[in-house]
Amino acid sequence: MSDITKKVERPLSPHLQVYNLPLTALMSISHRITGVALTLGMLIVAAFLIAAGSSEAHYNLVMAIASSKIGLIILFLWSFALYFHMFNGLRHMIWDTGRFLEKDQAMRTNYIVLMFAVAATIVTWVFGCPYVNEIISGVK
Amino acid sequence: MPDSKYKDEFATPLKNAKGLGSAHDGTHHWMMQKVTAIIITPLIVWLIWSIIGLQGASYDEFRFWLAQPANAVLMIMLIVSVLYHSMLGLQVVTEDYISSEWFKLMKLIGQKIFIMTLGVLCVFSILKIAFTVGV
Known about the structure:
CATH superfamily of chain A: Fumarate reductase/succinate dehydrogenase, transmembrane subunit
Strand content of chain B: under 5%
Number of helices of chain B: 6
CATH class of chain B: Mainly Alpha
CATH topology of chain B: 3 helical TM bundles of succinate and fumarate reductases
Radius of gyration of chain A: 22 Å
Mean pLDDT of chain A: 89
Helix content of chain B: over 70%
Largest interface: A-B, 31 and 32 residues
Order of helices and strands of chain A: HHHHHH
Shape of chain B: elongated
Oligomer: heterodimer
Radius of gyration of chain B: 22 Å
CATH class of chain A: Mainly Alpha
Distance between the termini of chain B: 77 Å
Number of domains of chain A: 1
């Protein structure tokens, strides 16, 4: 019995740890990862709401954390994850109508989604955050 | 006795009429994921816009802003639709990646309790502020 099973050389499916994922697959898993991360990101919004409904001391603490360097970095990552998930989600809706499902179309729209996400993040932080604005105008 | 005979005895034509398999559920999950996504998209743009305007806001400023009826209503809509969307998403991720049946079940229930608690806390806080500030 064991001889027979040894002889049969079955093809192995590509193993995730050694398989170089194409961009489309990376975007797909990133949609899920950002989705889970954004759920955690909603805790920031929730923290503000609950603290504001609780007491001034709690609110000031949450605001101080959000305004700190680490807080701003987390908010920056949060905004990018949000835009990525949003634009990729819009692509999912277009896919649901049966459009752009070919491999090359998926590859092209990968770049469009990434471009939109990066652009929206930059616009938000350059125009929205005085701190980033100061750094940029300081360099100039 | 052939297998098909058993099937004929126990399965009723209702199965075919409903058109659903062992999942007992068709497109509802998918549809709600999309519906909430459509609701969320403009609300998120509004949220980011609001966060930009609220940078460094004091306790009183923040509460005054949230107490405005339009802001309170939009914030409740955002919280409810985002958490619903998130609950559906987390459910699929758990169903796909957790292989242990009992852990999967516990995680699915735990996630739902967590999301619902968070939602109630947020909505309660918003309403509390909306009904008390400036009264």
